[in-house]
């Protein structure tokens, strides 16, 4: 199988990739215009006709699509194929407003699973591997996507879903799993539990992990790699665009290659909508050029990141995106300051005696925001003196202050007292009623 799942595509020259994207984009715009009344209306209002789109250079002429459009069109308003051609739905984990429901034909499932297969092969997966999938199964795309990719590669697939961590570890040992797929926070929890059970990396056969669905830092990567004795690869995706595998990391671990034969990426200024040049930081926008049932054109992800076409040592020519650096919407605004949970995480990961398990609690008292960060101590710290605990509290507090410019109340709590999540970690509890 080699280093790539699809070498022809993954290592295609820029000119050939552009040609492929141009052809697919033109056909997709026509398909959507002819079959989706909601989209036709948006294009008509903007005065754009399908024949105005002749290639990727015309992409900017199309209107953006946002989550608000998806909610308005819920459930069938953006469907581009008859329901009888659809074989699956998946849905977002969002807790506010209406859920987003995405539809798939069999062709759409195939291309999505193919993208996940590319990610697994990039992480070193072959038909000799045992791939333990502990992302949630069901409406969430994590489990089904990686499960499908793992089948395609020919790995022995363990469809574990999340939860029952001791059983996960038992299976991991008994069936000698070599690849672990789950959220990074769950991977860290599996690592902690492994150690609590009296085992270490030498007792398991894992070699790689494919972790995504939530933000995680480089420090967290190193921590998980150490706990489990593996190489940890990032994977990105969103339900609206298909699920995991929109982009994936290679052995260079310096960003995620976007599957550009299926998804065209742009970076825009989130305030003006203007397309920014390569290397600029801005909001990531995707156009899906091969999906049949739920093809979104210029969908605003709200994820902030940077794209780069620098040559990658892995040989892939697919454009790379940085780890998302936050979101334009779940960014917290505390006392007027923009706060990304990842900034807090990176402070904590630099402290040797605090753990990256934290929860931010924001409230509003007498018209002023309160900002508390609960941080778990590690076991060694428990036996320490009150003085050294106070010292740590002061250090975290001053580092947070210097990064964010605002003060937070730091509360150090006992190891394992912050509820663990088996899916995406709950890092923020916002009790303010601002809407
Ligand atoms: O989280 C799909 C997925 C499953 C990706 C498993 C990777 C692995 P949604 O629930 O629709 O889909 O959430 C999508 O999660 O817009 C990002 O804000 C965030 N996200 C996804 N992957 C990453 C990542 C899945 N690797 C939203 N790093 C996206 C940071 C991520 N954030």
Structural class: alpha/beta
Give the N-to-C terminal Cα separation. 53 Å
As a percent range, the share of helical residues equals 25-40%
What name does the CATH topology of the largest domain carry?
Rossmann fold
Structural Rg: 22 Å
Total count of strands = 19
Described by the principal axes of the CA atoms, the overall outline is globular
State the major sheet: 11 strands, mixed
Classified by CATH, the class of the largest domain is: Alpha Beta
Strand content: 15-25%
Integer average pLDDT: 92
Number of separate helices: 12
Number of domains: 2
Q: Name the hetero compounds present.
A: 5'-O-[hydroxy(phenylacetyl)phosphoryl]adenosine
Biggest sheet strand order reads: 4-3-5-6-7-8-9-13-12-11-10
The poorly predicted ranges are none
> What name goes with the CATH superfamily of the largest domain?
ANL, N-terminal domain
CATH architecture classification name of the largest domain: 3-Layer(aba) Sandwich
Explain how this protein is built.
This protein is α/β, with parallel strands linked by helices. It has helices spanning 7-10, 14-35, 37-46, 67-72, 106-122, 142-153, 165-174, 184-196, 218-228, 341-349, 379-382, 386-404, and strands at 86-91, 101-105, 130-133, 156-159, 179-182, 208-212, 231-238, 243-249, 256-258, 263-268, 281-288, 299-308, 320-321, 332-334, 337-339, 354-365, 368-377, 409-413, 428-430. It has two domains: 1-327, ANL, N-terminal domain (Rossmann fold, 3-Layer(aba) Sandwich); 332-430, ANL, C-terminal domain (GMP Synthetase, Chain A, domain 3), CATH 3.30.300.30. The chain has twelve helices and 19 strands. The strands form four sheets. It has an eleven-stranded mixed sheet. A four-stranded mixed sheet has the order 18-17-16-19. It is globular. The mean pLDDT is 92. Bound molecules: 5'-O-[hydroxy(phenylacetyl)phosphoryl]adenosine (DLL). 5'-O-[hydroxy(phenylacetyl)phosphoryl]adenosine binds at residues 92-93, 135, 141-142, 212-215, 234-239, 243-244, 301, 303, 323-324, 327.
